[in-house]
């Protein structure tokens, strides 16, 4: 996803998945064959298990949140209710009751704490049931009756389902989370493994810029704008100003925890020119033993030698608030 902003509008650019929701596929075409359903379920499990390895628990897996692209590839969406490691309480469990009624695990309804991985697996089992049968395993207009059915965990499997599919669904939709099949065991199941080609997802490699690139590699300014840019500091619109506010800083959602970085933002209302401000900053850091590189409104300083924690680098960017 990319986010762009003008002075009055915010634009979010998202991937277009033209196959639509899995819910629409089942609603229009009915149940899928075991071969088709297994392929979708295999991809779903690969995606969910990857999230679990990263400490992310979806908590709202359902047909409407599974998209299928033109090539039949699964895309998991809507992580609005997902839980992260710091959401667990001291007992190691999650306690927020959430999810869609027909897909929620019984232990979530019990309101005594639950394991995020086990509850996601339950939801995957409901999805598999719908894919292969065209109907929900637990359904009722009355929520109390629906929740009672889920807590009992009694399901009725069609006779025409293969024994392997029936066995796997029963093991996933086990109302006891402690005896419910685990993600690893699902991937060892004979029915699941048929024509299975695991997806090994690799994280994007961290990109470390060279010193030359760091001073200061931003998007290149078109030549017809260079003259204007060199004459005055970059202006900041309202959205950028909000993004610079520490109380609204969302970088923690996206930046890796092991990156040692501190950001300090400040404003000045004196009437000094940008040259005066940069000169004062340069004088201070030079006295501290830093090497200095300047480029228009940017000032980069760094120590010549590396310490035990790596090279200390400071990047200062001067901007005019409008």
TrEMBL record:
Its cofactor is Mn(2+). Gene3D superfamilies: Kinase associated domain 1, KA1, Transferase(Phosphotransferase) domain 1. Its EC number is 2.7.11.1. One of its GO terms (molecular function) is ATP binding. Residues 231-255 form the NAF domain. SUPFAM superfamilies: Protein kinase-like (PK-like). It catalyses: L-threonyl-[protein] + ATP = O-phospho-L-threonyl-[protein] + ADP + H(+); L-seryl-[protein] + ATP = O-phospho-L-seryl-[protein] + ADP + H(+). It is an enzyme of class 2 (transferase). Transmembrane segments: none annotated. Belongs to the protein kinase superfamily. CAMK Ser/Thr protein kinase family. SNF1 subfamily. This is non-specific serine/threonine protein kinase.
């Amino acid at each position: 996803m990319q986010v762009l902003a003008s002075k009055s509008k915010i634009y979010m650019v998202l991937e277009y998945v033209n196959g639509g929701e899995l819910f629409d596929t089942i609603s229009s075409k009915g149940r899928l064959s075991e071969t088709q359903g297994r392929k979708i379920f295999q991809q779903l499990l690969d995606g969910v298990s990857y999230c679990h390895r990263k400490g992310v628990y979806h908590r709202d897996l359902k047909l409407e949140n599974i998209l299928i692209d033109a090539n039949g590839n699964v895309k998991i969406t809507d992580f609005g209710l997902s839980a992260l490691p710091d959401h667990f309480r001291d007992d190691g469990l999650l306690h927020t009751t959430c999810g869609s009624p027909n897909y929620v695990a019984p232990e979530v309804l019990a309101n005594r704490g639950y394991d995020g991985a086990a509850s996601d697996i339950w939801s995957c089992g409901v999805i598999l049931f719908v894919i292969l049968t065209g109907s929900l395993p637990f359904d009722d207009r009355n929520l109390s009756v629906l929740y009672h059915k889920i807590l009992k965990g009694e399901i009725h499997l069609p006779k025409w389902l293969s024994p392997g599919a029936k066995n796997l669904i029963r093991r996933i939709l086990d109302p006891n989370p402690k005896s419910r099949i685990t993600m690893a065991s699902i991937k060892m199941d004979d029915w699941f493994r048929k024509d299975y080609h695991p997806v090994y997802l690799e994280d994007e490699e961290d990109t470390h810029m060279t010193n030359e690139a760091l001073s200061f590699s931003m998007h290149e300014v078109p030549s017809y704008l260079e003259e204007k840019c060199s004459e005055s500091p970059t202006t900041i619109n309202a959205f950028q100003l909000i993004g610079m506010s520490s109380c609204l800083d969302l970088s923690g959602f996206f930046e890796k925890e092991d990156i040692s970085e501190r950001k300090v933002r400040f404003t000045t209302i004196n009437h000094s020119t940008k040259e005066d401000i940069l000169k004062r900053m340069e004088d201070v850091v030079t006295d501290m033993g830093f090497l200095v590189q300047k480029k228009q409104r940017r000032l980069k300083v760094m120590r010549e030698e590396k310490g035990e924690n790596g090279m200390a680098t400071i990047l200062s960017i001067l901007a005019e608030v409008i």
